[in-house]
Write a structure and sequence with these properties.
single chain; 2 helices; 63% helix; rod-shaped
Length: 134
């Protein structure tokens, strides 16, 4: 059975897993940098000037240029994905903090006022998100 979908109105996001995934972007960018260095330094030199050598050198140069362009697009995609993932983390952390604050505000309204037996933090109050004391 599949998990919840957006149509269900509930999606569980594991922020810790997203933060761990952010490390993969660094690894992928390192691989891209390595591949870029390898492709950039390749040359079809010393083949001579006869017809087949020129054809091979021309094809090599075309492939090299094509691979360099692909590696450039790959790096741009990795950086865009990294920024988007970081923004998702920030957005969900902010949403989570707002939800905790709203829940604590709601729970605080259920807390008896001063002079009433049982005054104190509402049951289930989330630490660090309770009502401020004057």
């Amino acid at each position: 059975m599949l998990g919840p979908t957006a149509a269900d109105g509930v999606i569980d996001v594991n922020i810790d897993a997203l933060e761990e995934f952010m490390q993969i972007f660094e690894q992928l960018q390192a691989l891209q940098t390595s591949a870029h260095g390898s492709v950039h330094s390749t040359k079809a030199a010393g083949l001579g000037q006869f017809e087949d050598a020129v054809t091979v050198a021309t094809e090599h140069a075309r492939l090299r240029t094509e691979h360099m362009a692909r590696l450039k697009r790959l790096l741009a995609a990795l950086k865009a994905s990294e920024r988007a993932t970081a923004q998702v983390i920030v957005d969900y952390e902010e949403s989570d903090n707002v939800a905790k604050t709203n829940m604590n505000s709601f729970l605080a309204t259920l807390t008896p006022g001063p002079g009433v037996v049982g005054t104190g933090d509402a049951p289930g109050m989330i630490a660090g998100h309770g009502p401020k004391e004057a």
